[in-house]
Structure formats: structure tokens, C-alpha cells
Amino acid sequence: MTKKYILPYPIFLRFSLCYLIFCAFTTISSAQTTLKGTVKDEKGMPIEFATILIKGTNKGTTSDLDGRFEVPISPKDQQIEVGYVGFTTETLDIAGQTRMEIVLKEAISVMKDVVVTGYATQQKSRLSTAVASIGNKDFKDQPVTNVASSIQGKISGIQVTSPSGTPGAGLLVSIRGAQNPLYVVDGIPMLSESNSAIATSFDTNGESVGAGQNISSINDINPNDIESIDILKDASAAAIYGARAANGVVLITTKRGKSGETSFNFNAYTGIQQPVRKIPFMSSEQFIAMINEARSNDLARYKADKTVFGKDFDPSVLTKPLNYSASGQNTVWLDEVLRNAPMNNYELSARGGTDKTRFFISGGYYDQQGIVIESAYKRLGARMNIDHSVNDRFSIGANMSFNHSQNRRSFNDNTYSGIITNALGASPLMPAYEKDGNYASFEKYQANWLSDNPVKSAHELYGFTKSYRFLGSTFAEYKITNDLKFRSVFSTDFTTLNDDFFASPITTDGSAVGGKALNSSYQGLVWLNENILTYQKSFGIHNLSVLLGSTNQQNISSRTSIAGQGFPIGSGLQLASSAATLVPAPATQIPAWKLRSGFGRINYDIAGKYLFSATLRADASSRFSKNQRIGYFPSFSFGWNAHEEAFLKNHNTISFLRLRASYGVTGDQEIGNFQNTSLWKPARYLGVSGLAQRNLADPNLTWQKNIGTDVGIDIELWKGSLSASLDFYSANRKDLLSMVPIAGTTGFSSLITNGGEIQDKGVEFSITSRIIKTDDLKLSTSFNFTYQKNTIKSLLVDDELVSAYSDITPTHIMKVGESIGSFWGVKYLGVDTKTGSPMYEDLNKDGKIDADDSQIIGKARPDFFGGWTTLLSYKGLDASISFQFSKGNQVYNLIRPVYENLGYGNGGGLDQAFANNSTRVLNRWQKPGDVTDTPRFSFIEKNYIESSSQFVEDASFLRVKSLNIGYSFNAGNRKWFKSARLYTQAYNLFTFTKYSGFDPEVSSTGGNNDRTAGINYAAYPQPRTLTVGLNLGF
Amino acid sequence: MKKQIIFLLTIALFFGSCSKLDVTSLTDVTDEKVFQNADGVRSAVVGMYSQLQKREYYGGFYPLMSDLHTDMVNAGGYENTVLNEFGDRAVSPSNGFVEQMYVSIYKTIRIANGIINSVETKSDYGFDAAEKNQLLGQALGVRALAHFDLLRLFGYHWDINSPLGIPIVTTVQNATDILDRSTVKATYDAIQKDLNQAEVLLKNVTLEGNYMSLNAVKGLLARLALYKKDYTAAKKYSSELLKTSNYAFLDSTQVQKIYADRLTSESIFELGFDIQNQSAYNALTYARKDALTTEVFYLASSALKDFFDVRSNDQRAALLDYKNNDIGFSDNGRSQKYRGEVTKDNPAYILRLAEMQLILAESNGFTKEGVAALNQLRLQRGLKKATIDNKAEFQNTILDEILAEFNFEGHYYFDLARLGLLKERTGIANFRSVFPVPLREINVSQGKMKQNPQY
Fold it and tell me: What is the pTM of this model?
């Protein structure tokens, strides 16, 4: 039964057939001579790794350490192309030559650079769509695990936020307002979601209450193996990925081998991470003083009006002395659970090869301890990329990478029993450990906010996520004629992931049942076959390239989990297999989907002046029912290279000027599997198994469409010393795949269907200036800026209220005309200067403040964001600094009501307070006339409303994201190394913000739900990282 | 040119289409398959009971949330704002728990409707008459129970002339179907019709007390008659069950056994749970020995303690513990009805013999028979006979017994509403005798669904 999903036999057969046909075509080449020579720069220094390509063929070689090369040529070869990154490519006649001295000029313009556009590459100057690129030099040496960190603040239109500081955490990547792009690594669309089953978001009954911490599987790619990242920003560029591309596409190209002497590179850095910011909490004295002030405030009110707290109120709670006092114990809880943590990274790579075979091999080990105690992330990985030319026409190759990661999970980001959750608000009178060395039992101390001693939680809740990931592809390319080539790729993405969770019997979670365990294993497999035919030819001034392709992809995954309780005391056993009982019964899920696609692209230009490109992709997905299955995704774009026109040609200032316009449609099928069918799942009653309905389906469910238009201008002045791009775009997501509320009388609360429209409109601007570029001194600076406005244009059901977690009153609203992620709550009007009570807007004027007075009180999305990076080098010394900023984004700080409860007793009487407070509340109202935004302390009354604008904060920020200083030693004639660079880096150095929490970039509801964005619920704090490193080439 | 491209693309698509694009779920069964044959229908019946077990319904919330909406239970939890709305008796239409209960109960009805529809229309499934009766009878009984529970939560059940009943669902709904509220009378009629039919169908069917048996249907008929003020029928059904040989009151010192044991002689319909399929009662009312108030959702209030303090010898007082709690509980206590922290298999007590006794008493009114019936329960629970002087006192004593017997079982709030005494006995505004219709329902129904007054 399962066999048909696991082995796509017909595809495999077809694939091997391709090989046979290719081999039959292979011919033996004719008589050859050899062309020898050297490649040097203008200063006469040899250039290593320059490519020498015989025009019209794929024959070629690269230069060696001394710039020397040898390439076999046949009599019909006319010209060679010699190029190297950062240098102008030269085309030279070779007729009659046997030896050539070639000098390459350093290029300033980036327009000759080649970008990856999906199934093909294209020179930047010929692009008519919005594609952004970033090279290894822009993100190397950064102490990060996630490739998305590399583009944070570097590219206009792309907003990367770090919602949690958890080691191995996922990032939120939004391209022109749409979250979660498709990642394609060397052609393999890679799964990027979290596959872990350890939910961090559960309430005190162990029920999951919403999405929590997101650990991303994109971490399985080592950022330092990456050569370049290209981002298809507009719908026209992305449309070649049709069905998967609605949220943009990130194309990642890893390093490949180069022929010539084998070069080794060793890179190591070590560093320390520290908590950037600790929320200041009250000391024991302040804590007790607060509670006493709260009680005396209440007593004054009670004396003035004996009915104010109800007719049965017993005033002794306000007059008797407290049952606890400041006795020297003064625990600073954030110091107990946060630490300075080391991180280390080691990488060794080798690249080289002959003119026939080239390879790149790398291995790396990354070890990061978390700044919250008992958390860590380790990754061990290896990669091998091989290219081999069988003959002039036929080449084959393979990419393989294997990664193993181990994550000691930390229970934070939206969970009641979390370490940070409990540390925020724990009483300063409570020690972490009693004198006898046992964990202090939190029940004995104040602060009934706690669900456990946070230090105990950290040590006694064990959560491990281990993943094993294999990404591999093999490819073959055959040149049928000089203009026509065929490429076939077969790839797999295989993941095994194990989650082990154990709550020891001494934790709150495990105490009643003698310990609790959850063991879960996940296996995911993606098979992909791509067949691509490319035709490229010039007819005079008419340049044409045509691409046709088809792909077949299927995905199957399975997850099995068992949970148990009751463990042999003192045995140390933690697996569910040693549990007394399994609760609940083991669960298995096996989701699967298939996707079949055909696509084509035409690029046509006239003399490089008038550019035209069109694509069409047809996708058929198993996620939709038969009649709704196929989606067509067209796109068109036009460009005009004005600098090629006579009136600008050889202009002194303007060296490049292009206008472009594009229109495209992409699709989205990210709704999960089997959503087009109403299904029944297993259900049990008293030991008998039966079936209960799982979902209600819309049989007409079909593709979500993202219609994007873009108008842009690219300009380079003084041969590229200054370059800038400006884009105006609009992205309309139509027929949204969304959970639409339906009448509860159906037995279901929502239906996944197509409906509604959301628009993102924006302006992007980026400018790069290479201000100084002399032999010794180089200075360049780049700035990017994006203004973006998100508007909900239509919804099937308007005014839908959404809760970030199922046990809190609604926090967000979906409303036409507003932006997605709009906060919902009561509007706070400040403190009454006479009484010190909080004031709220009574919207419906009914004389009371309740949920009916709710209105929109903020939004998670920024108005604008961007970044600024400056690079400076002088002789061997180099430095770079990059900034990141965001303005207008707000955070609904839902954990703050806990630690700004103003002395509230939570009904705990004289023995309990609710939680300790941050020192921010010390500016509270104390006497009539005081002007402050913090209400008076009160023990009996709750002088705050959780769902109110009191806890909505401006989270605009300016951040010094990274500062990197390095020195490259002059290698001279040293034997044991060719290059050496010593560097030091500070990451996440400073943040200027008014936000009162750990970090303004927070979002505690996981990566996928932009409807409940901008929530802070005890997120893992972001670290500041300081590293020193060494890079050796030999 | 473009035509050729489309042609080529289509070819390319064909090229790849040898393997089928359909993917079948290995862990689910499609809707059509479930009701394709007799086995599927039988599986759906198990699923129907499983749906009753959901936390939002008889797995915990339905009985406990209604009790929380009186002064006898207080809200614990970590400043859980949705729960606090119940604790503050200020439930708003956007309350998530109200919405979850609403949907979960209608889901039970959906499954029941699927079963009823199949059994009634598919003559070729090969059910013999006995099995047909058994399946149909249970489904009709459960549908009636669910409609009744919805009416008690959201409809003006005390006023037969009110237009504010609930939407009655008797067919399997399509996703876009929207239903109007029926009148209270129409709602009662629909419940009555289902129960009458179930009573006939289940006549000769033997089912354990964990299932919707004939006796469970009779118990519901008694309860329904009481709500409809049809005292003749209420007397008939309650006395019939009280006389049934299967049932007997436990000795007054054994009251705790109702909760510690399973399916005692006092249980008429008890929804069962097991260790692999746990209910939420223990976690919601007790959690663990040292639990703080924040870990427990439903706390026994000091008012409930005061209530029991003056009832000397009431054996049911021992089912509340105001002593062995964390100091932070101050005046609050914990119910001991749902102990068993390891197994957490506490059942839902949907119909118990004591309710029949109280129905018998109430339906006889302030008469000799009525007082005698009421006193019989008091004696069973260790109390003395009450001397009752007038009608009001009789009604108050009945409510006292309901509170004493059924606290943390979800009766008191509904009975206060039924008798129009919510404000009088608890100080909670009378319009809160029902919960608000979930705001989401109002939004999706495009004006069809009317909100309860003053919400």
C-alpha cells in the first residue's frame, strides 16, 4: 500500500532512460592544439581561478595560482572569453594564437554579474524583473545558523525578523509583505518549516493553546557553504516557480569546485554571547514596599467608601502585617536563568579539480550554547559538490550535503511552564535553591504567577530535538547542438527528526504522575525530477533564449509519537518505553502530496536594448480536487536599457540606465494536505475504535493567486561608482487560502477555502556607492529603504476576531481596510491625576469598560524598514558595519501585565502576591496631582486590562546589526599558507528602541501566522555575540 | 508562438502524468466511505460518543463552565482572561470558550445526523431490525441531549413562548448553510420528538450505563418534562426510573463511591473515560496535591463552604476540601469529586438517580408527596428531614439540594435560570441566565442569528 508513495518508479525509469540516450549521442572530438597563457590584473598580479571559456562551447579551464592556464582548442574555435568575478569579462580572438598574455580590468559595475533566475542564469544587465542578489562576502563570518540572517537589513523589500533568540530558531522572512518564501538550494526546493513535535505552547492542563517556538529546518544549510543568494522579488521573476512562489523565492547557490591546484580553506571563530538587555526587576525591599503601598492605597479607598470592594469585604487583609518580609534574600531571577554563553564554529573546505572534474568539499562543526541556561544547539555537517565533463557536450554532477543537528530545547516563547515565563515575575524573596541544596519549592513563596521554579524547569524539563538531513541531487546536461541543451536533475531531500521530551517527577508537570515523557519521530522525503530544455541563439541583433521544462515532485512524511507517564524512581530512565502507562495512545500522521508542473520562459532582446521576457507555468497539485487541480501562472516583463541608445551612449556620467515593468501571477498551495476532502479520523470510546469527523472541506478549493506588478528603474553613474534602484510595486494576494469562519451549526468553526484579497503596496529604494576605490583604500556604502502598506481589500467574513492563544480574549482583528495583524483591545487613556485609576475609552458609552469597548489599537507591521552597510578597507585592514531599522511596528506585549501588575494580589490574600514587578512601575501615581502613565498600586483591584493599549508598545528600532574588523596578512612567499585573515565580529551590538521588553523584533506565535503577528509572550531573549576568528587559505 | 508554447507545455505535462496525481490519506477515511456500509455507521457511533468526550463538552467544560457562572465556583488559572469572564460573570460574545462549546456540541449533532440519515435511508446496508433500532435510538438520544444542552446554554429555555430558542439541526449541514434560531417551543418539540422515537426504538435494547440506553432516554424525558413544566410526564419518568431494580441509592456513608467507583447503582448515564482517553476534570479541578490556584481552573468558593457549614451531617460536604490546599487558596477549596491524578479517567455524570429524585419532588410541587420525595434524598445523604412551611421554602430547599448534590456537575446554573432565580440567589443579573451567542455566529450568519438580549 505504501509502496506507491515511496518509490516513484516510472520517474526513475524515465530518468535512467535519459542517460542512455545521452550516452548514445556522445561523439569523439576532433584534432586539437593547445592554447597557453596567463591572466593578470592591471597591476600585473596573477589572477587565480579566472575562467577561460571557448566561445560557443562549454570547453574551458581556470587559471592556476600564478594565473597560468592551458586549454585545448580545435581549429574551428574562434574566440575565448576570459572573466573573473569583479573584473570585466574580455572576449579575445584566438585565431593563430598559441600563447596569450591577458590583462583583466577591474569592474566597478555589477551589471555584468550573473544572477540565478530559476532553472537558468542571466546577466544582470539583461534582466527586466526585480531580482536581488547578495554574495558570500556580504555575510561571511557572521555567527548565525540561519541563512536568512545573511540578508537581514541588506536588501530592500525584504524584511527578516528574529522572533526569538532560541538557538536554532526560525526567522520570519517576508518578501514584499508575504511571509515564508520558497527556498531553493542548488535547484532543490527545500522544506523550511519546523518539523518538531515538541510544542512549547501549552497551558497548565497540558493542552496546546497555540503555535509557539519555531525552529526552522532551513538551519540545515550552513551559511558559509553558500556562494550567493538571489531573491526573486516580483511576481514576474518568481512566476517560473508558479505554484510555490506566491511568497517569493530565495535561490541559494552553494560553492562549487574550480579547476586548478586544490586550495584549502580553514575558518574558525569562537565567541561569547551575552543577554543584550535584562528587564530590571524590583528588589525584595521594593517588592514589599509596593505591596504595602498597594494595601494602604486600598485601605484609604475602603475608608472613604466601605462598599467599594463589595459588601462582604474583610478589611483585615489590608491592615494585618504581611506574612513575609524582606529577609536578606534578594534573587535576581533573570541572572539565575540567563548567562554568558560560548559559541564555536570550525569549518574546513577544499576546492579544486582538473579541466574535466571539479569538486568542492566542506565540513563544519557549530556549537552554540544558549544564553538561557540548559539550552544549546549543535550542528555537524558535510557537503560535496562535483562537476564532471564527460566530453565537450556531456557533463554530469552531483551535490550532496548531510547535516546532523542537536537542539537542547528551552521552554519559552509562549508557554506557562517556560523558564523565561516564570523568571519574569518570580518573587525576589524566593531563592533558586534551599539551603539543603534542593530546588526551592515555589509553592512556599509569594508570586502565584509561577507554575514552577524557573531554575528547576530549566534543569528538569528535558527537551531534545535531533535532526538528520540529507540533501542530494544528481544532474546531467547534454548539448544537443551548440544552441540547444538538455538538463535533467534528480534530487531528494530526506529528513529524520527525533523529539524527546521528559518532565522529571519533581517538576510541576510531572509530579502528579511520576514523570512524563513524549517521544516522537518524524521522517520526511521529497523526490524531485526536473527536465529542462534550453535554446539560446542570436540572430544578428536579435537575441533569443527559450526554456522549456517539466518537473515532478512528491513528498511523503510520517510522524509517530508516544507519550508515557510514571517512571521508575531514581532510575534516570526518560523514554516512554520505560513508562508505567502510555497516555494517550500512540499517534501517527502520514501527510503526502504531489506536484506536477510544466513551464516555459522566453527571453528576447534587441541588441541588449529592448528586453522582453515571458513565462508560463502550469502546476497540478494533489492538494486540490480533480477539477480545480491545475493552475496557470503567466508573467511578462519589459525592460529598456536606455544607456544603449545613441543619446546616452558614452555619456560621461550615466553609464547604465534601465527602466523596467513587469506583471506576473504566482500561486500558493500551502494549506496542508488533504484539505479538499472531508475526512474522518480515528476516535475511541471505552476501548473501541471508531471514526469521528476531522474537517469539513470545500471541494472547490483551488490555488491562491498572487498578482504582482512592478515598475522600476536601475541606474549606474560613473561606471558603477554609484548605483541605485527604485521600485514601485503592488502585490495582490487573491482567492486567499484562508480559514474562513462558518456557522457553528455545521459542527465546525471554520472552512479552508478561497476568499478575500490582501494587498501590499510599496516603494523600495537602494543605493550603493563605491566612494573610494584606490589600490590601498576602498570605501563603499549601501543603503536600502522600503516603505510598505498592507491593506485587507476584501474578506469572506469581515471583522473576524482572532486570538493569539485560545485561552485569551481576542487579540487581533481581520477587518477590511485595515492591515493584517491589527491589534484589538480597549483604548487606554492614561491615569486619572485625581484618583490614580486607569482610564479607558468607553466606546459604546454604556458606562462600563468591557470587551464591547474594543477597537483597533495598533498594528504589527512597520511603515518602513531598511538597512545601511558600510565597508572600508585599507591595505590589509578591513572593516564593515551594518545597521538595520524599522519604524512604525508595534508589539502587543502580553507578558507585561504579569510583571506590571502594580501589586495586585490575585485573590491570594496575605500570603500571596501575583508577581514581582519591573522597576518601570516605580513611576506610578502616588498622590493627587501626579502625572504619570502608570496607575496607582492596588492589592485588591486590577488596575490594568490585559487586552488594552496599555500594553501595546512602539517597537521601532535602529540596530547596529554587525561590526566586523579584520586584518589580512601579507602572504608573501610563505609556504604554509596562501592567505590569512584574522577578524573580530560583534553581532547584534546595540539596539536603540523605546520598547521595554527584551527585543523589539519579537513575535511569539510562531512563524506562520501573520494574522496574530507582533505578540510578545516571554520570548527567548536575543543575544549579543562577540567573536574572534581566523580564516586560513593554504 | 504562444500557442506552440502552450502546446509544448501541455505535452510536457502529459509526459509527466503517467503516475497518478491523487494521494490518499493513510490516517483518515473520506466522508463518503464512512457512510458507505454498515461497518462505517457502527464506527461513527463510536465517534459520536468520542465527540461527547471532548474537553469543550462533557470532557469538562460544559458542566464546569456553567457552575463557574454561579457564586459557588471561582476561576483559578493564570489570569486566563477567557476564563475570568466566567469567573467575573461577565461573559462577552467574543469569549472563546463559549464559541468552542457551541461548535463542539453542534459537531456531536452532525455525527448523530450522519448516522440517523444512513440508518433511515440506506436499506441495503444489511442492518437487522434490532441493530437498526439500537443505532438509530442512540443517535436520536444523543441528538436530543445535545440540542437540550444547547438550549440550556444559549436559549430562553424557561419561557416556552420565547422566540429565542436555538438553531435545530436535523440534516448534515453544508459548509455554507446558515440556520435561524427556532422558537423555544419548536426546540422543545424537536427534542421531545427525538426522545419519544428513541424510547420506542431502544425498548428491547440492552446497553450499559456508559451509553445512551433506554433508561438514559427516560431520564432525559424526565428532565425535559420538568423544563417544559409538564409535571405529569416528569413524575411518570422519574418515578419509573426510581423504581427500576438496577438503580439504588448508596448508603449515606458511601456517597464518595459515586465518584471513586465507576457505574455505581446511582448512575443512569455516565460518559466513560480511560487512561488513554482522559477527561479534563481532574486537571481542571484538582491538578496535583500542591497545586496553586493558578494551576486549577475551577475553585470551590467560600460561599459553597458557608453553604455546607450549616448542613450538619451532609455526607456530600466531604467531597469538598478547604483545608489541604496551598496557602494561596485562602478561602477557596477544591472539589474532591474528580480525584485520580494518575489515570485522569473521571467520567462525566450526565444522569444520576439523585436528579430523578429531585425531579420527582419538584414535579409533585409543594405537596406531601413532593416534600416526602425531597426528604428521601436528604435522608440518603445523612441529613435530617426538612420541615417546609411554604412553596417558596420548598423551592429553595430543592435548589439547596441541587447545589449540595450536583456542585461541579453542571446543574445549579441551569436550574437557577429555569426558575428565574439567578439574580435572587447569586446576585448575577438575570439576563445572564443564558450565555451570549458567539459573536462569530452573528458575524457569519449575515444578520440571521439574533443575539440574546443585553449582550
Answer: 0.84
Q: What is the pLDDT of residues A243-301, one digit of tens each?
A: 778 888 888 889 888 877 888 999 999 999 999 989 999 999 999 999 999 999 999 99
Listed by number, the residues of chain A in 131-190 with a beta carbon closer than 8 Å to a beta carbon of chain B are none
Give residue A910's pLDDT: 78
Residue (of A784, A789, A783) closest to A729 by Cα position? A789
- Are B440 and A696 within 8 A, CB to CB? no
- Count Cβ atoms below 10 Å from residue A183 Cβ, excluding itself: 22
pLDDT in tens, A627-668: 888 889 999 999 999 988 888 888 888 989 999 999 999 888
CA distance A547 to A120: 8
Number of helical (H) and strand (E) elements in chain B, helices listed first: 19, 7
Dihedral angle sign, alpha carbons of residues A15, A17, A20, A26 = negative
Q: Give the residue from B20, B22, B25 with the most A CB atoms within 10 Å of its CB, the best one to mutate.
A: B25
Whole-angstrom distance, CA of residue B118 vs CA of residue B127: 11
Say how far apart CA B274 and CA B244 lie, in whole Å: 28
Spatial separation of the C-alpha atoms in residues B110 and A568, rounded to whole Å? 44
Using CA atoms in the order A148, A151, A155, A159, what is the torsion angle rounded to 10 degrees? 40
**DSSP state letters, A55-97:** TTSS-EEE--TTSEEEEEE-TT--EEEEE-TTB--EEEE-TT-
Asked if A810's CB is within 8 angstroms of B26's CB, the reply is: no
d(CA B111, CA B41): 10
Nearest to B288 among A1, A512, A911 (CB): A512
What residue spans of A401-470 are helical by DSSP H? Answer: 419-423, 454-460
Distance from CA of A550 to the nearest CA of B (A): 6
Bridge-based pairing state of the strands A172-175 and A121-123: unpaired
CB spacing of A742 vs B175 below 8 angstroms: yes
Q: Are A689 and B107 a contacting pair at CB < 8 A?
A: no
525552529: which residue's cell? A215
Dihedral, A826, A832, A837, A842 alpha carbons, nearest 10: -30
Residue B130, classed as helix, strand or coil, is: helix
Q: Which of A227, A224, A248 is nearest to A146 (CA)?
A: A224
Segment among A160-169, A606-615, B182-191 with least mean pLDDT? A160-169
**A774: which 3 cell numbers?**
584606490
Dist. CA A915–CA A291, nearest whole Å: 10
Which residues of chain A does B109 touch, with a Cβ-Cβ cutoff of 8 Å?
Answer: 747
A186: closest CA among A477, A402, A489?
A489
Distance from CA of A733 to the nearest CA of B (A): 22
Residue A239: name the closest of A131, A392, A84 by CA.
A131
